[in-house]
Amino acid sequence: MKAVLIAAAVALIVSLFGTPLYIRFLVGRGYGQFIRDDGPTGHHTKRGTPTMGGAVIIGATLVGYTVAHATTMWAPTMSAVLVLFLMSGLGLVGWLDDFLKISRQRSLGLRAGAKLAGQSAVAITFALLALQFQNGAFRTPASTRISFIRDTGIDLAFAGTALGLILFVLWALLMIAAWSNGVNLTDGLDGLATGTSVLVFSAYVLIGIWQSNNSCVERPGPQCYEVRDPRDLAVVAAAVLGSCFGFLWWNASPAKIFMGDTGSLALGGALAGLAIATRTELLLVLLGGLFVLITVSVVLQVGSFKLTGRRVFRMAPLQHHFELAGWAEVTIVIRFWIIAGLFVGLGLGVFYAEWVVGQ
């Protein structure tokens, strides 16, 4: 528990006080956000606001995690290292995308193929390594079984070793792509994606601690959790939580800095990595329900327009629909945070209820 608190506190301090220094650096180099002309007209005032702020979130997370382990003299675990690798790797892909947008002063950065290739390379590496590194209890950071609150009976390795590995890699790739792009779509209003991330990562701090206290290694029983390194995953979640909290001070409306694809891809990757490593892959659909709603709004908009020529919303993603309906940006963000909090509460309620019922 001490490491969890240290990771959160250090990451928060680094992010809170490091972000203004990073803002000055970006402003000095003229690294400002390019705003699309086909978006809400109110966003044109944000042109030139520093972006690539996700680098601070990643850096603060790594510092928080490292200091927590150095202070407690506790060795890092492979589950946590792999989640941090996934977060940092996707953040690097997002950074390249952001940098090209800024340097070329247009809304397109990396070509779609190059961006997908970068995301896929990081995700596939994570998936392959996550099935290695057995501990003394013969557990690996990930499992080939699809999980909800714990592993289900659906095993992707049913068809044999080689095919099972391929199916797991494809499943992990789908999850990572879905969540990294889900956070990316949500990052359209000041503080929206950052505040929502704070709520979801808070849930993973609680889940990691609960799984650690009810681990099959320490407390074997019918409802124990077969998770390799739950306590260290809670430390990772706490570090990300702290870094997002500190960054939110500067990212809230009116934003002094945007996280950019650097942050959104990294946070989405961290969420997917935590879900895979804690065996809560499908539970994340509830915990991150706001990300799901916003992603679904884009799918519905595109699908409806292609099939019928009509739009379901005034504009997608969903938050921009309410902007065009006349809602103030701060009103949308706060109400969406409330919705995100309700989803997190529902997800945690389901998580706990499953444990109680099984007792």
Could you give the topology of this structure?
Elements (H helix, E strand, L loop, with lengths): L1 H28 L24 H19 L5 H27 L7 H19 L14 E3 L3 E5 L5 H26 L5 H22 L16 H22 L8 H18 L6 H4 L1 H20 L9 H7 L4 H30 L1
Antiparallel strand pairs: 1-2
Helix pairs in contact: 1-2, 1-7, 2-3, 2-7, 2-8, 3-4, 3-7, 3-8, 4-5, 5-8, 5-10, 6-7, 6-8, 6-12, 7-8
Low-confidence stretches: none
Instruction: Assign a percent range to the helix content.
Output: 55-70%
The total domain count is 1
Spatial shape: globular
How many strands appear in the DSSP assignment?
2
Beta-strand content estimate = under 5%
Structural class: mainly alpha
Work out the radius of gyration.
Answer: 20 Å
Largest sheet: 2 strands, antiparallel
SSE string: HHHHEEHHHHHHHH
Count of discrete alpha- or pi-helical segments spanning 4 or more residues: 12
Strand order of the largest sheet: 1-2
Note the gap between the termini. Answer: 25 Å
The averaged pLDDT comes out at: 91
